[in-house]
TrEMBL record:
CDD domains attached to this UniProt entry: CAP_ED
Organism of provenance: Thalassococcus arenae
Pfam families linked: cNMP_binding
Domain Cyclic nucleotide-binding: 13-100
The name this protein goes by in its record: Crp/Fnr family transcriptional regulator
Domain of life of the organism encoding this protein: Bacteria
PANTHER family attached to this UniProt entry: CRP FAMILY TRANSCRIPTIONAL REGULATORY PROTEIN (PTHR24567), HTH-TYPE TRANSCRIPTIONAL REGULATOR ARCR (PTHR24567:SF74)
InterPro entries referenced in this protein's UniProt entry, alphabetically: cNMP-bd_dom (IPR000595), Env_Response_Regulators (IPR050397)
Amino acid sequence: MIGPPFDSLPEAALRRVALAQGDRLFAEADRADAIFAIETGSVHLVRVTVEGQRVVIARAGPGATLAEAALFADRYHCDAVAIEPAMAWRIDKSAVLAALRAGGDFAETLCAHLAGQVRQERLRREIIAIRSAEDRVLAALVGLGQPGTVTAFAAEIGLTQEACARALTRLVAAGRVSKVARGRYAAR
């Protein structure tokens, strides 16, 4: 089920969307009529540069919202693409704006949620600045956890899957990280 503050919106304003890897949640220049909350999986926000290079401008995993700027825009400014199977909630833009105008708990809870996402993104950028792969992986496990596969985790922290896997192997051997399940790791 969807969490606060969206759980207080009318049921008609919410719709679950299942995505296969590679599916688009929305495309750049589509009419911006909703924001989205990710329940499971991961979605990347992608733009294409003038040279034609695809650039990931944001990543959204379980519990994150995306396309919040759509509340104040006519069109989406990027593509949203599932990088693994995902389940998302489509949240009607007009319902969110009405709840914001009404004030109260909805507005405060949404602002707190968005501020948490800003803090999380700043931490992720700080972690990406760490040069050593082992130190970066350990800092990410401590600060962010491993929300998905090793491949998704590596992409989240700006490493290749191979470099991330080697760092995890060395960290497990050094006793600084535990392998908690197949492909799943946690800091000790």
